[in-house]
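Hi W., the flavin-adenine dinucleotide complex you wanted:
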Amino acid sequence: MTRKTETITLIGAGLNGPLLALGLVKRGFRVEVYERRPDMRRVRMSAGRSINLALSTRGIHALTEAGLWQAMQKIVIPMKGRMMHSASSELTFQPYGRNESEVINSISRAELGIALMNAAEAQGVTIHFQRRCTGVNLKTGTLRLRDEAEQERSVDCDVVIGCDGSASAIRGEMLRRSRFNFSQDYLDYGYRELTIPAGSGGEHVLETNALHIWPRGNYMLIALPNVDGTFACILFLPFEGADSFEQLTTRSTVQEFCQSRFPDAVPLMPDLADNFFANPTGTMVTIKCSPWHVKGRALLLGDAAHAIVPFFGQGINCGFEDCTVFLELLDRHGADWERVFEEFEKARKVNTDAIADMAVENFVEMRDHVADPRFLLRKKVELALEAKYPKSFVPKYAMVTFHRVPYAIALKRGQVQDRMLTELCEHMVRVEDLDWSKADHLIRTDLTPLELS
Ligand SMILES: Cc1cc2nc3c(=O)[nH]c(=O)nc-3n(C[C@H](O)[C@H](O)[C@H](O)COP(=O)(O)OP(=O)(O)OC[C@H]3O[C@@H](n4cnc5c(N)ncnc54)[C@H](O)[C@@H]3O)c2cc1C
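Structure:
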C-alpha cells in the first residue's frame, strides 16, 4: 500500500489505542499516540490497574488479524468454566462451553497493554507519554496537550481518534456540541482489587484453569489466574448499606467480613487488609452516546464511545471488535474519513448498545443465579439443546463469547431462547425430563439457523 501523508492522531495508549495504531500504521498511515500516563514499561504504575481481563473470540480474532495472538499464548491462561465456592466452601464446576475449545482466557491488563505498545512501536507508531489531552477544536483539529510539568501546547491534527476510555476528553469536547446524545449509568456497586499469592513452589493454590466465583447474592468475589501462579481477585460490593464498602473502614472489619463470607479464600490471602487499603474503590458505569464522530475530523472508539460494566467480560473484546470493523471499512473505502466514521457508527452502535444491556443483565446472573439449582438446570438444558441443534440453538453466552454473532442478534435470540427455556424447564427436575418434541417444535418455529464464525 502506498504511504499516506496524512497523520492519524490517537488519544490514549490503553488497549484499543495501540491495537488500532498498529492496524493503521500497517496500512501506511503515520500514527501519533498521546497518552496521559507515564510509560508503564519504565515506571511502576499506581495501584488500580492490575485487574485481569477475560479475552474471548472477538478479541482473539482482532489479535490474530494483527499477527499477535500466537505470541500471546505464553501470557494467557485458558479458563474452562466457573468454579463456584459456596458459603460452606463446597466447590461446583460449571463449564463455559460444550468442550475444551470453548474457553475464555485470563490475561493481565498490563501484560496485554505492554505487548500491544511494543508491537505498535516496532511498526513505527510514536507514543508520547505524559501528554494529557485537555481539549480539541473539532473544527480545525487543533489539539491541546498538557505535559508532566503542566506546560500546555497545541498540535494540529488531520484526524483525531479518541481511544481515551470511559472518561474521554474527546467525548467531553463533543458533549459541548448541540444535539449530542449522552447517558451514563453508574452501578451502586464498586470493586476493589485483591491478590491470592502463588504457593511456595510458584504454583496456583486454587484450580488453575477456572474463573473462581464466591457468589453471595448481593455481592461477590472473583479470582482469575495469572501465569506467575498468583490470582488477581476482585471484590464487588455495594457502596452503601448492609454488607457494603462504607462498612469496611478498618483492617479488622475487612478481615472479619471476608472471613465470615469467603472462608476458604481468606487463608489464601495473607495480605488481605494491606491489599484492600492499597487500592481505591473502582466505579462501574455504562456510557452510551451519539454521534461518535464529527465529520471526518474526530471519532470515538472503544470505552470512549461505549463503556460497559465488566460482567460479560466483553469490554475489551468489544473494543477490539471495533478495531476489526474500523479497519475493514478503511480497507473498503480508503481514507474517506467521513464515510468510514459514519459507517463505523452505523455498524457498531446497535451492537455496543446491546452488549451494554447484556452486561448489566449478566451482573445479576453472576451475583444471584449461578448458585441456584434452577439456573444450573437451565444451563444443562441449554447445552443439551445446543448439542442437538448446534446452528439454531446457541446459548447467549456462547453467541457472545465463542462466536462473533453480532451482539444485537445475540441479545434478540437470547430473549427468544430464554422464553423457550422457561417454557421447557417449567416442570422439569432433571435434564433427562426434557420434552424433545416440544423443544423441536419451538426451535423450528422460532429460530433460524445461524451463520457461525
Ligand atoms: C473491573 C473491570 C474488569 C474488566 N474485565 C474485563 C474482562 O474480563 N474482559 C473484557 O473484555 N473487558 C473487561 N473490562 C473492560 C476493559 O478493561 C475495557 O473495556 C478496556 O480497558 C477499554 O479499553 P480502552 O483502550 O478503550 O480504554 P482504557 O483501557 O481505559 O484506556 C484509555 C487510555 O487513555 C488514556 N487517557 C485517558 N484520558 C486521556 C487524556 N485526556 N489524554 C491522554 N490520554 C488519556 C488512559 O490513561 C488510558 O491509558 C473490565 C473493566 C473493569 C473496570
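The pocket of flavin-adenine dinucleotide is lined by residues 11-17, 34-37, 51, 53-54, 132-133, 163-165, 169, 191, 234, 282, 302-304, 310, 313-317, 319 (CB under 6 Å).

W.
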